[in-house]
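User: I'll paste a sequence; please echo it back and then give the predicted structure.

Assistant: Echoing your sequence first, then the prediction.
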Amino acid sequence: MTVMLPSVLAQVDEVVQPEIRAALERIDERTRLVAGYQLGYWDAAGNPSGRGGKGLRPALALLSAQAAGQPLDRGLPAAVAVELVHNFSLLHDDVIDGDLERRHRPTAWAAFGVGPAILAGDAMLSLADEVLADDPERDVLRALATMHGAIRRLIAGQAADVAFESRPDVGLDECLAMARDKTAALLSCAATLGAVLCGAPPALVDGLARYGERLGLAFQLVDDLLGIWGEPAVTGKPVLSDLRARKKSVPVVRALTSGGPACGQLAELYARPGELSATDLSLAATLIEETGARDWTEKQADRLLTEALAALDQIGDLGTPAADHADVHADLVAIAHFMTGRDH
């Protein structure tokens, strides 16, 4: 099922993307070319391409500022910062995984080389700090601490993901902890950073953080499912891409720890040296389904979505009376449904 983009995402194109483009002007021309390519602003030759991500994280940052009773533009630095951090992580992730394609075109390292891609990621991470610290009248120190905490968790999650590749004994709990760090931490940061920057009270920030954390983990579980059963024409990734890379994603680890004949066959396939054939990959996907891991992962994603929406309801008025509570709540709900109901 394809879920329509929430209308709030149009505001990301209108108000956030120009700010990101302006931030890129601070870095050198070579690095800016790679960074802008990663963001989808131009092709490898610098010609405008009109591509780009969906802007989910910056949209959450804008909404969190509005939830705190502030105008949307008060959340702009937070929105720019989380998108830069997100793309820093994608740049490095593609290098680490050796992925050749993202968003239906070559990854940045495949187009420009490993060194330029890593440097562009470093530059974007540095820019995120600069942008967030630009306005001394806001709660900059608290916002930087929030963002840096999320980045540390993101790196820890990526480190665990890499370590899992050489381990045959990954447990489900530690796999879920990896997903929380690698993906949910930055989603939680995005859902709170605008509010933090605007000096929101701890109770509001905590409620938004719970929403973002649960939504982030649900998002990762959906992504794990798409990494096995997603359509390449829609996802922009090769068929059965996670199985080809022998990723220890949540459905895979659930299957590998389930016991039974299908579990044993899958473990044998994953331990086999050399590349897996197309037949092997198809068999692996079938075995995962036979263990019930696909169904279990889908149900966990649904449960986490329910918990994310419950966290929103528990916040109550979502900030000060200046906020349009109903609209902000509706937009946060719409984003949650889009992120967990997507097929791409």
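The radius of gyration is 20 Å. The mean pLDDT is 90.
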